[in-house]
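Protocol step 4 of 6: structure prediction from sequence.
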Amino acid sequence: MVEVTSESKEPALSEHPATGESNGPALSEHLATGESKGESQGPRFEMRGVRKAFGATKAVNGVDFAVAAGEVCALVGQNGAGKSTLMGILSGVIRPDAGTMSLDGQPYQPREPIDARRAGVAMIHQELSLAPHLTVMENIGLGVEPARLGFVEWRRLREAAADALAQLGHPEIRPDAILAGLSPAGQQLVEVARALASGARVVVFDEPTSSLAHADVERLFLLIRRLAAQGLAIVYISHFIEEVKAISDRVVVLRDGTNAGGGKTADLSPEMIVERMVGREVDDLYPRTSREPGEALLELIEVQPGGATLTLRRGEIVGIAGLLGAGRTRLLRTIFGLEAVRSGRIRVGMYSGPASPAARWAQGAGMLSENRAAEGLAIGLSIADNLTLSHLTDLGPGFFVLPSRQAAAASRWMERIGIRSAGPRQAVGELSGGNQQKVAIARLLHHDVDLLVLDEPPRGIDVGSKAQIYALLDALAGGGQTGVRPHLGRQGRDRGRF
């Protein structure tokens, strides 16, 4: 956990103009901001003056970014700062409006992701882009399978997969194993092996530890250091400040689509990084006002898993902690009716016994799933639809929904929680992960439930947004928000997120 204070005696972050213009000497001299251990050679990849707009929104506005071979560079910034867009451009998912890119000194202009992969640029996404029903080797070779006369050469594919896994130090993973049978950490290794098998020179890790236990995080860091030692350029994106300090050689900060500073990781304190990210001091990440517990809203008696017994009252915030696999998520899903009650008793308000999720909604309980992409949101629908579909009351006469009222209701929550978007009609799938998480939380607040069951609420949220969410939960628990009844929250593990 990182406590952010306003005092710091460490050197100032190197400034970088936020005008969007490429400035001064060649970028390879400082690799966008700060010196690096690759300063004696040119960068492995270089992006200069990159711009990308979506309508009137300038997602990336003249950004310079480069990483040397053998370097681990952390790319940090708030949700909506432009990190995902910039890396989408690098990996061929998004085409820039302006700017230049080079890879090992040669012009680089990928038209689609497969072009980037063949050129040696791989991206390990937060939500892994794998096919769980296929084997490990089929996932590793997907799209670039060795073939002859139109037929896949399975022997060569198996050998390439085994070689990539051996390079990662995990020869125990069988190439013919079905991917779905592996743990999240094992599946992530397959994604990295896929990058190595395609001859990656640049690997981007986007929030790679969000679903990993502590031991798996340590093993991932060893793997990243091994890749850097082999000469790969590593970009590491994370909201966990202690991870950035532990794994990176250099930090580059983005804010509002422009370069906002950076430098050698060893020279920067967590407070300095955070202040550059948000453009101001963040005084208190964990506000706590006085609270007066009221009537019991939730009672558990010997509920499995874990034989949990507890009573939660209106105005209380209770944290449930544990390692991955300890049963935290399973317990919460049991409370909300997503899994059957194996033994014990659950009471929500005046209602006792097991219930379906629909019944829990009616009883005044709402849940935020840790898997927002699969369970928490309808990615293809708009922000307004996601916010209001579970509670359409007062949005129109009778059974009708007036789009203007729906948009207005969504806009109020978007402003209150700070959801950064092009408007309430923008598709949720187009938002950054942190803003998607805010939409999922806003949906529960719009439903006006009494009991919030939150599974990993800070997942994918930056320090400024996290402070907003925690302040909101504190206000709700303390009854400090007009027209909103006190709510109960559940906070998962916290490892010092930005």
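Step 5 (inspection) to follow. The domain at 27-278 is CATH 3.40.50.300 (Rossmann fold).
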